[in-house]
Amino acid sequence: MEILNPHDKFFKETFSIRENAIDFLSGRFPPEILKKLDLSTLTQDNSSYIDEELREHFSDIVYTCFCKEKEIRITLLFEHKSYALACPYLQLMKYLLKIWEANSKQAQRLIPVIPVILYHGKEAWKVRRFREYFEGIDEVFYRFIPEFEYLLTDISCYSNEEIKDRVFRRVSLQITMLLMRNIFDEKYLEDKLKGFFEIGIQYFEEDEGLKFLESAIRYLYYASDIAEKRVIDTLKEISEEGGKLSMTIAAKLIEKGKIAGRVEGRAEGAIEGERKGRIEGLKEAIEIGLELKYGVKGLKLLERIRKIVVIEKLEAIKEAVKIAKNMEEIEKLL
Length: 334
Known about the structure:
Elements: H1 6-15, H2 18-28, H3 31-34, E1 37-44, E2 61-67, E3 73-81, H4 88-105, E4 113-119, E5 151-154, H5 160-167, H6 171-182, H7 186-198, H8 207-223, H9 228-238, H10 240-255, H11 258-265, H12 271-294, H13 302-305, H14 311-323, H15 327-331
Helix pairs in contact: 1-6, 1-8, 6-7, 6-8, 7-9, 8-10, 9-10, 10-11, 10-12, 11-12, 12-14
């Protein structure tokens, strides 16, 4: 399924890694439940229980595992929220019903489902029992109200140090939690960005680490307004491959109009602001393209390019960077 929300997408990419799910369960599940689960049998359920009605509300991460003492299968529903819900039970019940309907259609016995909500929004999340939402009713009616719980992990309840040193062990999960915890505090995140990524220096040398790094870079580009160049420069200091990867992703997104559109949007409503935004986006695209293609040598043209304020000329230079056989062909346009 396509997830338009960058928080959901990053969450899904991280938690689709089985080892990350196990690390999360080990660090966050109540001990009395954890000791009953055989995590060695944890398997992602690739069946999609999402229909059109639920598509915008769930990121569709479901795992199953067996209990240690009995041959009973348990379903673990991982759900992410970047904003507080007035009544999360309503959405959860729709999902639980889809899972149990699937059990029934396949002539299976109904499987217990443990809903797990990971939250990193700005507002406080208050956990209430479902029956508390039925205000003013007598207790005699409680037996007619469905009763179940969900397990909440509010990342804001943990410090950055706890996330790194105590709660989680896997580097990719640590970085994910750190980015999501601080994503709405742009200035703080920008200041701490290098420190967050430094814990993955060795991990980024592995194929899995580079794949995760790509996911993290895209999350920053889409979910924050931190300048692309700041992300690139930060990752260059940590990992040569990370620097190249961040430049490549930025170049692709600029080419597709993703980042350029975001830059223009920073000056909404003003024609002059839109023009300046377009110029800024083109110059950034050219700079990244030059460095990708020619390395440090390509950056010697930047001083002259930065003085250009004609959009058409900048667009021509951007196209030339892509197809030129050498720097001399680009210089002819300056």
